[in-house]
């Protein structure tokens, strides 16, 4: 069977699985279920309005799908850290899981999660960060030199996307094809909210097949020609520590997760900084504030807006009985604006002294492995723009990407003078 035919058949399977889920969500949405409104196409305007409606009902909101969502910071923090919850049911079929969208670490409970995470962790040590800093500085300089020649540019296409893609392809030993990986990443990211048509399912299947082919070729090459990259290190561990079946999904996840979140964070940061001239000018005047600015961006508009956890045993959360295999969706973006934790939570304030660490990188054993790299890239990217182009201004309206699970701009047009 040809690759195109395989992608077509995979798309039909995936479409059937997700269209079944779409019918359930549509029915719940018609009956007023707020969580279904978050992810149903056509309702995706400003999710923060829905978050506040959910918060007004209570800290634990039952859905018509039989699960719970929570907008509470303390409850989200507890669920993310509790060993009573995992990311995959102990038993029973999960219709959201399939071979096409194998998200590796994101779909594994211990001990497999622990084993694979330990193999990837050395790529994100403080020693490695020093080497990445040089790479980030070089990429920033090149991209901003190009932008300076244009006068007007789209922050997303010309800066926010190619910067982290350059870093992650270097880390993994891939060719730096920014346009291709951005297209594939956007297709996969959009599917995290669901697949709503056979056309989308086939596009997703094609993107996944394309990404698999890239990594299959790289894995074969690195088996005989190892380099100084993470894929080579993981190939060397193949055997008892990681199987061939686990290796492909892990490296694909590291690529997509490693740049999709940072792309959105850089775009959101520039969106909100340029929306408030005083805050932009403060960063221009005091560029050393950039790490703190990055933290406020991640709190105020986290690129990953929600997480999903399932009870591994009967338990209780905030007085609510939770049965085994029941799902709870901590809405990270809402928790990051919990008024019980953050004063004036709906105000973007780069001078904020936060009383608690935001949940943009999740929590517990699934805390984002690449968070040190993402923080460094975001802070360096925002600082460089403020230092290089202090008079930067919007050149048109910001266009947001469709989707709620991963949130960020599609276009942020700016002019340098």
Description:
This protein is α+β, with helices and mostly antiparallel strands and 417 residues long. It has one domain (3-94, 105-415): Cytochrome P450 (Cytochrome p450, Orthogonal Bundle). Helices cover 54% and strands 8% of the residues. The protein has helices spanning 3-30, 34-39, 47-57, 73-81, 112-120, 126-150, 155-160, 162-172, 178-191, 198-224, 230-236, 244-275, 277-285, 290-300, 332-335, 371-388; strands spanning 60-62, 68-70, 85-86, 152-154, 309-311, 315-317, 320-322, 327-330, 393-394, 399-400, 409-411, 413-415. The strands form four sheets. A five-stranded mixed sheet has the order 1-2-8-5-3, sandwiched between helices. It has a three-stranded antiparallel sheet with strand order 4-12-9. Helix 10 crosses helix 11 (230-236). The chain is globular.
Using the coordinates above, name the CATH class.
Answer: Mainly Alpha
Helix content: 40-55%
Q: CATH H level: which superfamily? A: Cytochrome P450
How many DSSP-defined strands?
Answer: 12
Gyration radius (Cα, Å) is 21 Å
Structural class: alpha+beta
Could you spell the SSE succession in H and E letters?
HHHEEHEHHEHHHHHHHHEEEEHHEEEE
Q: Describe the global form.
A: globular
Strand content: 5-15%
* Overall average residue pLDDT: 87
Strand order of the largest sheet: 1-2-8-5-3
CATH topology: Cytochrome p450
Number of helices: 16
- Summarize the main sheet: 5 strands, mixed
Q: Residue ranges: pLDDT <50 for 5 or more in a row?
A: 1-17, 93-99
What separation lies between the terminal Cα atoms?
55 Å
> How many structural domains in the coordinates?
1
Task: Just name the CATH architecture.
Answer: Orthogonal Bundle
